[in-house]
Each structure stands twice: as C-alpha cells, then as structure tokens.
Amino acid sequence: MVQDSFLDEDIAEITGVVANGLAARQHNITLVTLTGKPRDLSHYSPRITPVFLEKARAASAAAGLARLVEREKPDIVLSHGTGSNIACLSAVKTRTRLKVPVAITLHSSVTIAGNLSLDTQKSAATIAIPLLYREADRVICTLKSIEHVVELCEQVPNEKISVIYNPLVQMNVFETAAEPIEEDWFDTHGASKVVSIGTAFSRTAHHQLLRAMAISRYKEDLRAYLLGYRDEQDDLRLLASNLALDDIVTMPGDVVKPERFLRAANVYVSTSQQDSVPGEMVRAMALGTPVIALDSGAGAREVLSDVRNGWLVPSGDADKLSEAILAAVKCDRSDDTLATRARDFSLERALDAYEKLLLSMVAERVTDLN
C-alpha cells in the first residue's frame, strides 16, 4: 500500500485504517509513504511493515518505489491519492519488468455541471483524469460522483472501475458514544443541542453557523457547542459576542471521545466545505443524530441524497441554515434511514470490498502467469 504523505490527514487516516483492517484479516502489508515520516508508529499492526522513502515530493519517488517493488515482489500494489497513484503507475508500469497489478484509489475529483453538453463534460473529464490512469489494473473511486467523472473521460474501461466508500464508521463508535458526558460545560438536559466539530479552511461556514444561531435562538430554546475550532476560536468568540450569543454558544476546544456529543446532540451541523465525505457527519448519522451539511461539496451531497433527517443548505445562507436547524431539532428521530446510509461507510463493508477486489486481482495475475 502506498500513500503520498501524512499532510493530508484524511487520506493518511483512511490508509492506516484499511491497512490495519487488512492486516487483522491475516494479510501482510508493506505500507509505503513517499514523503515525510510520523513520530509514532505504535498504531500499526505487527503485520504492517512501514517504509518511508522520505522524498521531497511524490513526483520524485518513482525510481525508489520501482526498486522497492522489485525487491519486495508484492502480489499487488494499492495506492491512495493523486501523487501516489501517478508515482505507482510510473514505477510499476514503466520502470520495472515485474507484472505486478496496480489498483489506484481516487479520493477527489472535479465537479462537472450536468447542464453542460455531453461533449463538453467529456472534455472536462479528460482534462481532470491523468492519462496515466489508463494503465491501472483497477481504479477505485471513493464516491460515485468520482466514478462518474472517470467514466466520462473514457480513458479507463468501465470494467476496471469500482466504488468503495471510505471506512468512516468503526464498531467502537457505538461503545464510545455510550460513555457518560461528565464535562460541566455541556448541558445534558433542557435546551435543544446543536453540535459542530470544526474543520480547517471553513471560516465562512463557521460564521454562517453562528449567524444561523442568532436567527434561531428567538424561535427555539437552543444551545450550540462548537468543538475543536483551535485556529479560529478568537475570531469566532468575537463574532459570537457581537451577535449576543455568549450565553448560548460554548467553544470548549478539542475534546476526547467526541462521539459522546454526537449522540447527545439534537442536530449535528457539518461545516466542511470539501468534496470528501465528513467523517464526523457520517458517525453522527450512524448514531441516529439528524445532520445538516452545506451544499458546497460532492461528498455531503451524495451521502444525503436519499435520506430523511438530513438537510443540505446553500453555503453562505444563514437563513436557510436556521430553517434547517429548527426543522432538525423537531424531527422524528425514530427514522432509521440515516443509520442505514451510514452503514455504507462502515469499516467491515470497506474491508470486504477491498479484500474481494484485491484477491480477484491476484487470481487474475496467477491465471495470466499460467
């Protein structure tokens, strides 16, 4: 398994979870990181051998990766992220004589407007998908919207493309969520609770949430808990004070076991503005908590497309967000479509899909060699 670096925390976390999961199923994993090195390796399974090429950038790692492949002679190469995908395909398909199958994983892509002509959509997709991807033996898309773009570009045969959602929900989420909340700043009774966990690069979304609270507070008894938000607390506290929200908005910083608060919330508001699926939002869904997401990325749009008790609101529109909050805190939580949808992102389903795909590729390789 190959990843670019630890700078993209989302991909690094997914790669680690998949590697540990496959190792628990008795597969031996060499986990290669092209750039950078972590301080702590204790979270890796004994069946995982970490290798750090420590290159300045992923583009310069192909030669070293090719030498590693020739030395290790793996049954299969699985890469995650654009830099790793290109490096792996360049290393295995053009720099080695070994016929090792390569599966690449796409975690992000462009969004192509459906109102464009089909030819224009195909042209955009062809630009967005690297030509080298046609050399991959399998292309794994972590969203159906990514699969759609890959299919449009027509460089990769459809039979090589599959969708495997990222494993964002592990079984311990339910055990952790059941633990008591003992923090004295959290009101476990009384007012309806709006919980959000801060994500980087979402300043405008955080402001939208506070303005929505200012609109909603006079229509419903609410309390908001903004967890995390380390880099923006001063800015957000000033805005909350200016909006006269000091009495109903609490910003405790980072917390341990945030799943406890996801379970206790009447509604979870995701302030993510990226195309990837917000992990905290899916975990809230698994716990049956109504969720609201900003309609600014393909991930949340795809997850909430066919579920009840899930709202998409326009990015920047505090009035619409206020309306969604007021509807969410009053909705029927006995509806289980949120939890059902969250199962698509369970660790077991992802591992089953990865294992099935990788074993089929190994079987094809054995057939070809024979």
Q: What does this protein look like?
A:
The chain is α/β, with parallel strands linked by helices and 370 residues long. The protein folds into two domains: 2-167 and 347-369, 3-Layer(aba) Sandwich (Rossmann fold); 172-345, 3-Layer(aba) Sandwich (Rossmann fold), CATH 3.40.50. 41% of the residues lie in helices and 15% in strands. It has helices at residues 9-24, 62-72, 82-94, 118-128, 144-153, 172-177, 203-216, 233-242, 259-264, 279-286, 298-303, 318-328, 337-342, 347-369; strands at residues 2-3, 29-33, 48-52, 77-80, 102-106, 138-141, 161-163, 192-197, 222-227, 249-253, 267-270, 291-294, 310-313. A seven-stranded parallel beta sheet has the order 3-2-1-4-5-6-7, sandwiched between helices. Strand 1, helix 1 and strand 2 (29-33) form a beta-alpha-beta unit. Helix 2 (62-72) crosses helix 3 (82-94) and helix 7 (203-216) packs across helix 12. The radius of gyration is 22 Å and the shape is globular. The two termini are 25 Å apart. This is Glycosyl transferase. Residues 192-343 form the Glycosyl transferase family domain. Residues 18-167 form the Glycosyltransferase subfamily 4-like N-terminal domain. It holds the Pfam family Glyco_transf_4. It comes from Pseudovibrio japonicus.
